[in-house]
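Researcher: Before we compare anything, I want clean individual predictions. No alignment, no superposition, just each chain on its own. First chain goes here; please echo the sequence and then give the structure tokens.
Model: Echoing the first chain and its structure:
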Amino acid sequence: MSAFAGTLDLPFYDDRHRDLAAAATAWCAERADLWEETRAAPPDKAAARLLRALGDGGWLRSADPDDGTADLRSVCVLREVMAHADDLADHTYAVQFLASLPIRRYGTAAQRERYLPAMARGDLAGAFAVSEDGAGSDVAAVALRAERTDDGGYVLDGHKTWIAQGTVADVVCVIARTGEGPGALGLTAFLVPADTPGLRAEPIDFIAPRSFARLEFTGCRVPADAVLGRPGGGFVVAMDVLEQVRMTVGAAAAGLARRALEAALEHARAREIYGGRLFDVPAVRTSLADLDVRLSAAALLVGRAAWEADRGGRGVGARSAAAKLYATEAAQEIVDGAVQVFGAAGLVPGAVTERLYRQVRSLRIYEGTSEVLRSTIADTLPRPRNKERRP
């Protein structure tokens, strides 16, 4: 789709990003059989196979602490390409990036060496666990408790839910309440191996099948060196990671939307109706034009947010929130519009638009709901200056 290529030609990106997009697109095109097979497989088996394929292809190398190429523009490029080719491939890539990012940014040398090289190879799967029944976008409401033990370790009791890759993860980054202070001040991040006694994963079914789980912690004992960052610093870890990742969700949304719009355009130009083509119907042409504009705008917001983050610009959190908000809302509209162009055929199981329709909905919820992101953006808006009162 021209919107993607045109965006890559802008100064937000350089030649290495364009080369990355071309290489990833070619790699995905050669694996159409893999996408079909994993779509038909149980979520856990599909996730394990895709993780291995991504690792073998070198696409997880951003987790390697010695790689040095984990800039967010590259991650956004890869997410858009992966989402365009196969939603499960993007999901697997994204969760591995999400799980490795806090270790890369806050881990000790020993933690980084223990986990990151294996994650980069696809030998070790990760998950990032924040959400609970009563704590989703409101990270400060986390209730899972981690009580300090006499030997300096911790015992975790409580649950996490809606955890992506939770059924296949080998290590989970968990945000728990340790009580150094109230609310956000009393949270700590932990790295918990999945085989730790007292940790149990229960699968959760989704309308778009993939690996999700509820994690139950019952007397789950971890040593002092399981702490990621510092005690009481868990809120900072969580919010920093989410602010970095949100824009990449926008990139995935653009990939799904681009695939939907391509399918709708192809169908509209081939479908004969009223003695002409569906594309010639004025209402259809207007709808497709509007959807293309939404896609272009989404791609621009994502590109700007990633560029700002990579150059260390100010206001990255708001830019990332705006990119995620607009791109995911636009993608929902674009996929819905594509279904409308196809008519009933667009909702038949196995149709590309039917699959995209199920896949796109969750993007407006995870990594910050649209409502919460609007509030985040509003908080950054400039305040008017107080006018001087005249006598």
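Researcher: Okay. Second chain, same rules.
Model: Second chain and its structure:
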Amino acid sequence: MEIKEGIFYTESHEWVKVEDNTAYIGITDFAQDALGEIVFVELPMEGEEFAQKEAIGVIESVKAVSDLYVPVGGEILESNEDLYDAPEELNNAPYESWMIAVDLADESQLDDLMSAEEYENFCKEEEE
């Protein structure tokens, strides 16, 4: 299981990478491994606004259908439309395959997220 330093993590296995005032969000290596082969994604439209932890999309795999939650609230700046044609990229490169870019409305919401070390410990507890 790969966990990258310098990004934030959620208990629902999303990651957040902040560049300037933009939060790029995807699913973790742990999540893609648990889901199995990802075959479909449904992402929000540019311009939509969501509150922190709100369900914003769907990830479908050969094993299950899971909701995607936004770890930080704000306006959707962009959805990664490449994933519509190649959802398997979430399996191949989960940390390079961001799903949405959000205008970070409230930077203090990052305080609710986990560091790499905290996330690693969280995942170990889930596996037990």
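Researcher: What stands out in the second chain?
Model: The chain has a mean pLDDT of 94. Additionally, Strands lie at 8-9, 14-19, 22-27, 38-42, 49-50, 55-61, 65-69, 74-79, 100-104.
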